[in-house]
Specification:
Layout lengths: L7 H13 L1 H7 L4 E5 L3 E6 L2 H23 L4 E6 L4 H18 L21 H12 L8 E5 L5 H15 L5 E5 H13 L3 H8 L4 E5 L8 H16 L3 E6 L11 H7 L3 E5 L4 H14 L6 H10 L4 H18 L5 H7 L13 H12 L3 H5 L5 H17 L4 H7 L5 H17 L1 H15 L1
Parallel strand pairs: 2-3, 4-7, 4-8, 5-6, 6-7
Antiparallel strand pairs: 1-2
Length: 444
């Protein structure tokens, strides 16, 4: 039940500031206004589309947890744009209406993720071409299509684009997009409530199945079993299956070989980190679409400083646009360096393994020597994995060299450590924030 009373919004804001930190809170949450508070929905007013997009994609969980903890609220959040630009408000309303229309049919695609909005470069050209082919001829070629690549490189964008294209251009086909976490929850609920027949009916009778973050099926036997039979059923009927993962099939841990074999039966396409020119194109296209006046020197500075992650690249642009819209100041080089100082270090000071070890050890209450020992206790193993992950992200060292600095580990151990950290970050928000804070300390 929703607890009503004086100062509830202020209490929630204090809770969010406590979790998020003053800088991010001041920028993203202080400008929000509570418009309506009901038992099943809450309406918040945001200054413009930049805030709406950023909060929906990055901070909705903070709102959800704070409202649940303080007010006992478990309903829906609605973010309403306050800006006066009628054209932009109309565009946002169209996207929201499309989302609702698709959701009413059981299709939960992101309407922003289309092929038209996807910037193609050498790093993703093959995956993009495969996705376009599949969307135009679903079930005829490349089924399954398995797309893999690092975090924030566009995998989710591509598989949503496939779904959106089919929905818009090929009538009569049923499309189902599902993150593997949702599939997992549905399997567990179906087993608990003895509704497996309904689950099978839902997943084995679609024309196009799009499964995101397939790597998180690792170690879940019951879910693997259901996915195996779902895969076989759709494959035998020549339906289209598309999967996205942060690693190729053979590197997904704790799944049976029969699943790995099936994942690789069609076409496997990888997405690599974008080249400098592709990053420039991404920034310019995003700026043009969002009507952001981005100076050329700021664009090139961002492309140079953000090494690999498209999501972070676009996030920096949105952050600059939000700050500009609030202050009424144009985006300049000085403003960009000031606003993004916690994200981008302007000094090209080399990050050393010793600096990483020192910062990680301090953060976990250990001695630097502990990270170099061969002990495998949880208290040491997790910090060591974090250290290796950060070394991979912030240095040019080879995997073998990173391993040597952390207790003489080989390159395969470093790869495993990085994957463990990435997986834990995707599931545990506090752990993710801890790792990010360590990285920020190292950069500064």
């Amino acid at each position: 039940m929703l607890k009503k009373g004086e100062g509830i919004w202020e209490k929630i804001l204090l809770k969010i500031e406590e979790r998020l930190g003053k800088g991010s809170f001041e920028l993203w949450f202080k400008p929000l206004k509570l418009i309506d508070l009901k038992e099943d929905s809450i309406i918040l007013e945001v200054p413009n589309r930049f805030f709406k997009e950023w909060i929906e994609e990055n901070y909705l969980n903070y709102l959800t947890e704070a409202f649940s903890e303080i007010a006992g609220f478990t309903g829906q959040f609605k973010l309403r744009i306050a800006e006066k630009d009628k054209e932009l408000k109309k565009e946002v309303m169209q996207l929201e209406n499309r989302t609702k229309k698709l959701a009413s049919k059981g299709i939960f695609l992101n309407p922003r993720y289309t092929f038209e909005n996807f910037v193609v470069g050498p790093s993703n050209q093959f995956a993009h071409a495969a996705a376009r082919t599949v969307s135009e001829q679903p079930g005829s070629v490349y089924s399954p299509l398995f797309i893999y690549g690092g975090v924030g490189l566009g995998k989710t964008h591509l598989i949503n684009a496939i779904g959106n294209y089919i929905v818009d251009n090929i009538s009569g086909l049923s499309v189902l997009y599902v993150p593997i976490e949702q599939f997992t929850n549905e399997v567990i609920a179906a087993i608990r409530h003895q509704k497996m027949a309904e689950l099978k009916e839902k997943y084995r009778n679609v024309d196009v199945l799009l499964v995101d973050d397939i790597q998180f099926i690792s170690g879940k036997a019951a879910v693997q079993e259901e996915l195996f039979h779902t895969f076989n059923s759709l494959y035998d009927k020549q339906k289209q299956i598309v999967m996205a993962s942060d690693r190729p099939p053979k590197e997904i841990q704790d799944i049976p070989d029969r699943l790995k074999t099936r994942f690789g039966m069609g076409l496997i396409a990888d997405i690599q980190p974008p080249e400098y020119e592709t990053k420039i194109a991404i920034l310019n296209k995003k700026a043009e679409k969002e009507k952001i006046k981005l100076p050329e020197e700021v664009c090139h500075w961002l492309a140079k400083k953000i090494k690999s992650n498209i999501r972070e690249l676009e996030g920096c642009l949105i952050k600059l646009a939000a700050h500009s819209s609030l202050t009424g100041s144009p985006i300049t080089m000085d403003m960009a360096k000031s606003v993004l100082k916690d994200v981008i270090s302007d000094e090209d000071r080399p990050v050393t393994p010793e600096l990483i070890q020192k910062t990680v050890a301090e953060s976990f209450g250990l001695k630097i020597q502990d990270l170099k020992l061969k002990r495998r206790t949880k208290e040491v193993a997790i910090p060591r994995q974090v250290g290796m992950y950060i070394a991979r992200e912030l240095t040019e060292l080879s995997l073998s060299d990173i391993g040597k600095h952390f207790g003489g580990k080989d390159h395969s151990t470093v790869i495993y450590a990085c994957k463990q950290v990435e997986e834990k970050m995707s599931k545990d928000e506090r752990f993710k924030n801890l790792v990010k804070s360590i990285i920020d300390r190292i950069k500064s």
